[in-house]
Amino acid sequence: MVRPQARLTILHATEYQQQIPFHLAKHPVCQIHSMFQNGLNIKSANRLFFIGTVKNGRLPFGIHLTPEQLQQLLNGITEDSSVSWEPNERTLSFGETGPVVSIVGADPFDWRILRAPITSELIADNLTMLVAILLEEPRVTGLDIDIESWLTRQLQGHPANSLTEQHLFALLDVMESSNTNDIEQHLRFLIGRGQGLTPSGDDHLVGLLAIHEAAGILSNPFVETLRRLIEKERLTTDIGREYLLYALDGQFSSTVVQSASELTRKTDIYMLKPLLSELLDMGHSSGIDTVFGMLLGLLTLRRKLE
Fold this sequence. Notes:
Layout: E1 10-12, E2 15-17, H1 20-26, E3 29-36, E4 39-44, E5 47-52, E6 62-64, H2 67-75, E7 82-86, E8 91-94, E9 100-102, E10 107-109, H3 120-134, H4 147-156, H5 163-174, H6 180-190, H7 200-215, H8 220-232, H9 238-248, H10 254-263, H11 269-280, H12 286-305
């Protein structure tokens, strides 16, 4: 009788998003969706999970490894490797004899934004600090919006100078609306717009939803229209969709949670700047796009409070 070859590598994750095992228990047969320098995405049914480092923060759908563990994992698999969840062992197995990622002993996490009382004075102060940080150097979003010029036109009531600006100005007007046709028109323009695995438009909406989680700025029709478009249609990338689905359920990466929480409570520039700087530095434009979404949210919140 030929015995199966023993697995060579068992990698013990440091932490994991606490809902992941429950989903994998229902859908244990997975596949590798995409691989990157700092991790890989696993597809289970119609959802994605990330296995990798915390380079971009603790992701709302992440199982996290050390850089050394990740390199061992990537060295032992290919994009065609099979992936399966073993519920009794609480492990993800790659291939017949490839590496195993175990969550036994790992710390479960669930990053969420807590709501607290917010005053118009507090938001005015925090908005001033956010704008000061954004304008320290020229910043352009992934949708080619120069933030300083956009703010000048928006605050002074000047007309938009591009189709994208028109939709962003209009988005500010429909965030508290019940007109689902108007809401859908501007959301369809934004969802999936831009380059990359997480398009800029999606990052804007994630930042906006983070401020909504902290302060309740969006109307129910706005949120439900966004949810319907994300759940029922294929308007963006798989990874962009995953971030939006988690954001709609109030779950974000640790960097987004920390920044949005700080922006909606009493703070000072010395607390706020390091958190925003960490987020702004992420990805080619993902960080600035997410912070721009938070800026949209704070502008809406200021209008609502006033």
